[in-house]
Design a protein that fits this description.
With 434 residues, the protein is α+β, with helices and mostly antiparallel strands. It is built from eleven helices and 20 strands.
Length: 434
């Protein structure tokens, strides 16, 4: 039975890939008051009832605004509650992708080089490291999350030197650390001699018609915009950094930005999350997980992923870009990889010809979480599956097979990662043991 389902799954993806094959890109007018052309979902073979199922899922997951672009034209657009197409919402860490773009633009203009020492722009003593340790950190290390600075400090967002402690030599350790990233904004302002909003206006917003702006919240610079403005950015990236014939970013830098940037986390570019790689890492752990972080998305999909499920997700092969803004979904995390994959599952199900597909791709559920004595796994697709629990530093502490209820009383209190394997399909969630 499972072999038949696997063959059906492959056939379904093949049919879906034909229906969504990419075409030449359309670019909306720069003026946001002008009409953005649309694509009739029926021409893509998408069923109205499946679209409603997608919207129901998004609404249940606290979504405020959602768009799918097909080759640049709006295929789906929906807002929930009182939120509208004029509403402003935060990008959270999805905004890291804008910073990556701007760094590349500054390098193109010979205002900086990503191989430069960060201290050239921030001055000596910007960390709590020794001078030799600090001088090893480059802009590229900040872009790739390989600064070597300790991400386990009490305040991970703190950009004060006292918070930036040495843990490993730059380039030898990947860790999702907000503070070194945030300081890229100071690097940009030092290199360009203008503030971050001005440089964003000149190099990104004016050429594409994007709106919005950066706001400082505590230590972080957070970008706020409409859903459509995030979609404009996604379309720019889908087009290899070209907007309506104008190359807005150096092609060589663009290629580096959206491909594996180091050998530690193959699913990370320059602040972009990359799908279809042999393995990936996640925040707060040094564990390397096998496979893609979004197994049901196209293998060429790249994404900007932010807290509470802020997502810009792009697949050139399918011609699709989707944008999700809103409050925290049920699978909440600082980097919403699971939620991104869930949305792609729902997009895959839109095809009218796939009558049973939506019944085959249910996400497993693990609960309770936090847990004290035991956890229960439900929604398993396969009769044979394996569950493995890892501690915060990536060591395996428990491994069981084909057990729906798992006794965790012997685990110490703390944060763990739980991985469930079902054949080639894996799902990972954070587990808190009380």
């Amino acid at each position: 039975m499972m072999k038949k389902l696997a063959l059906l799954y492959i056939f379904i993806l093949f049919v879906f890939s034909i229906n969504t094959k990419a075409q030449p890109l359309y670019y909306p007018p720069i003026s946001t008051s002008a009409t953005w052309e649309t694509t009739d979902p029926s021409t893509l073979g998408w069923c109205p009832e499946r679209i409603n199922n997608l919207y129901t899922f998004l609404e249940q997951e606290n979504t405020k605004g959602f768009i799918i672009l097909k080759d640049g034209k709006i295929a789906l657009e929906q807002y929930f509650g009182t939120f509208t197409d004029q509403g402003l919402w935060y990008w959270a860490s999805a905004g890291k992708t804008i910073t990556s773009f701007l760094v590349g633009k500054a390098q193109e203009e010979n205002l900086l080089n990503i191989n430069d020492r960060t201290s050239i722009y921030l001055g000596a003593g910007w960390t709590n490291c020794t001078l030799p340790q600090e001088n090893n950190i480059t802009i590229k290390n900040q872009l790739t999350m390989t600064s070597g600075l300790d991400d386990g400090v009490i305040e991970n967002d703190c950009t004060d030197p006292i918070c930036l402690d040495y843990l490993a030599d730059a380039g030898t350790r990947w860790a999702y650390h907000n503070a070194p990233y945030t300081l890229l904004d100071d690097v940009l302002q030092s290199a360009t001699t203008v503030n971050l909003n001005t440089y964003t206006q000149l190099k990104l917003k004016n050429p594409t018609g994007m709106t919005g702006g950066w706001t400082t919240i505590d230590y972080n610079n957070v970008y706020f915009s409409t859903v459509r403005s995030m979609a404009r950015f996604g379309l720019l990236i889908q087009g290899n950094g070209v907007w309506n014939g104008n190359q807005l970013i150096n092609p060589n830098y663009y290629s580096e930005m959206v491909n594996t940037s180091q050998n530690l986390n193959k699913s990370y570019g320059y602040l972009w999350w990359l799908n279809g790689k042999p393995n990936y890492m996640l925040p707060t752990t040094q564990l390397i997980f096998p496979g893609s972080y979004a197994a049901d998305a196209p293998s060429d999909m790249i994404a900007g992923l932010g807290r509470d499920g802020q997502i810009v997700s792009i697949s050139q092969s399918s011609g699709l870009v989707f944008i999700r803004m809103g409050e925290a979904p049920s699978s909440t995390s600082s980097v919403p990889t699971i939620f991104c994959n869930q949305i792609w599952q729902k997009i895959n199900e839109l095809d009218c010809n796939l009558a049973i597909y939506e019944q085959q791709l249910t996400n497993i559920a693990i609960g309770p979480n936090p847990a004290t004595n035991s956890i229960t796994i439900t929604n398993i697709m396969s009769e044979n599956y394996e569950c493995e629990i890892f501690n915060i530093i990536g060591n395996s502490v428990m491994k069981v097979s084909n057990q729906n209820t798992i006794d965790i009383t012997k685990l110490s209190s703390g944060v763990y990662m739980i991985l469930v394997r079902q054949g080639n399909h894996t799902q990972i969630q954070k587990l808190i043991k009380k």
